[in-house]
Amino acid sequence: MINGEKVLDHPIRWAMVGGGRGSQIGYIHRSAALRDNSFQLVAGAFDIDPERGRDFGVGLGVAAGRCYPDYKTLFEEEAKRPDGIEAVSIATPNGTHYEICKAALEAGLHVVCEKPLCFWTGQAEELVALADAKGLVVGVTYGYAGHQMIEQGRQMIAHGDLGEIRLVNMQFAHGAYNTALEATNPAAKWRMDPKFAGPSFVLGDVGTHPLFLAEAMMPDFSIKNLMCTRKAFVEGRQLEDNAFVIMNLANGAQATSWSCAMNCGSMHGQKIRVIGSKASIEWWDERPNQLRYEVEGEPARVLERGAAYLYPAALAEDRIGGGHPEGLFEAWSNLYLRFARAMEAANKGQAPGFWYPDIHAAANGVKWVEKCVQSSDQGAVWLDY
């Protein structure tokens, strides 16, 4: 159980690029990073408007002189300080991630980046090579993977509770963009613009989340080939608001993915179901403290977070005893604690010894979106992965 005792030699001196006032995800980054005394927010370039960013940073308790007008100035000035930053989180629109991440790595900084890491596989491979060469950590915020029941699923699969894995069904299908919300909401508008969002909307925005959950639960999840069809149902959109993907896996299993932003009435709709030769499990992010476990010929059962019958690894990141619900902020905190521990290990030249959504997972998400777009644009053809 996580109880607040320090696990690092010192809190990592940390900055943010983006995540300013009005940001959709800035607060959860800060809440997660600061919760366990693993990071200390000392600097930032919080807004494209320097004055607004400085005002916001001061409101967070950051010294005015360390609230910078842009990320380049942030990295340059902090490098001159004996107490300069050691890590940075990137919480900006998709189209800026590659250049900021590359600059951070070149400056010798560890990185936590919103997904997607970049738009194209070539860019991702460049960032992987750069991070590996410098021994730096790049974590990606697949935040749902921090829920403890994902670890329970991973342990059940590893211990053979499901038998041989045959099928994996993934979906993230909500209804928030059923109408042209982007016409009146500036925060939504960039998600539909290829210049800022990249080659995809829902595949990259929501589809990669359950994809990583599958990878977290099944470390041997390896795609052999895939086929994708996608469509924009809301008139005027340049990018898809619905997509279906079918995948054949290297181990003989099959997987499907449904990514959607116009599933009327669905609040979130992210689920992953793993079907084996003996049993199945299903996790739904709207009920994240539970995992359905269904054995053929037996009554269905619901496993609860924090219960003594879970595998020990699924209890390690509990923050309060069973019966009390934990949510997305706790899941993100679990991942940020893993990021911090991985960064400290890297500083000592050591491997972390645990899994987290790292740069290789981020690069695979980029590749998956790219392959899906290629398949769809060629008429929903099968492509080797």
Provide the descriptors you would attach to this structure in a database record.
14 strands, alpha/beta, 11 helices, five-stranded parallel beta sheet, 22% strand, 385 residues
The biggest sheet, with number of strands, parallel, antiparallel or mixed sense and barrel status, is: 9 strands, mixed
Task: Report the sheet-strand fraction.
Answer: 15-25%
N-to-C SSE string, H for helix and E for strand:
EHEHHEHEHEHEHHHEEEEEEEHHE
Number of strands: 14
Cα shape: globular
Distance between the termini: 39 Å
Structural class category: alpha/beta
Uncertain runs are: none
| Mean of residue pLDDT values | 97
Individual helix count: 11
Topology of this structure?
Layout: E1 12-18, H1 26-34, E2 39-45, H2 50-60, H3 71-79, E3 87-91, H4 97-106, E4 110-113, H5 121-134, E5 138-140, H6 148-158, E6 165-173, H7 186-189, H8 194-197, H9 202-217, E7 223-231, E8 242-249, E9 254-260, E10 270-276, E11 279-284, E12 290-295, E13 301-304, H10 328-347, H11 359-377, E14 383-384
Parallel strand pairs: 1-2, 1-3, 3-4, 4-5, 6-9
Antiparallel strand pairs: 6-10, 7-8, 7-14, 8-9, 10-11, 11-12, 12-13
Helix pairs in contact: 1-10, 4-5, 5-11, 9-11
